[in-house]
């Protein structure tokens, strides 16, 4: 893989980092967040490489079901009113360390996700510079 963008994210509520430096996925710190599906609760680690859907969860996620996510620091649910264009589930927004946000679909198995910046030109420049889009 020659084009790699890794994202650093924080909780949109308490603004604490969700990066786990000790648990690596694809040699990068993973995004650690509490996950809930049905009556099961656990912890999920998401790969921080943009476009990679790899994750490790300590509960079994059922393909096609919608998960809920809570911040491990403030325990607030991370959610939005935005709806996935592909499947109609809610999008889950994380705040990017550099400004803007990255959102992904709450439905297990749906790969819809995108990045949105408040100031596009500035953020994109920083994004590519900081994370070495080569
Ligand atoms: Zn929080
Ligand atoms: Zn990955
Ligand atoms: Zn979706």
Could you characterize what this model shows?
By secondary structure, the protein is mostly beta strands. It has one domain (9-131). Helix content is 9%, strand content 35%. The chain has one helix and nine strands. The chain has one helix at 120-131; strands at 9-10, 19-25, 28-37, 40-46, 55-57, 68-70, 91-96, 101-105, 113-116. Strands 2, 3, 4, 5 and 6 form a five-stranded antiparallel beta sheet that branches. A four-stranded antiparallel beta sheet has the order 1-7-8-9, with no helix packed on it. The longest helix has 12 residues, at 120-131. The protein is globular. The model has no long low-confidence stretch (mean pLDDT 89). Bound molecules: zinc ion (3 copies).
Q: Short description, anyone?
A:
With 134 residues, the chain is mostly beta strands. The chain contains 1 helix and 9 strands.
Order of helices and strands: EEEEEEEEEH
Low-confidence stretches: none
How much is the radius of gyration in Å? 14 Å
Shape: globular
Terminal Cα span: 10 Å
Overall tally of structural domains: 1
Which hetero ligands occur in this complex? Answer: zinc ion
> How many strand segments?
9
Largest sheet report? 5 strands, antiparallel
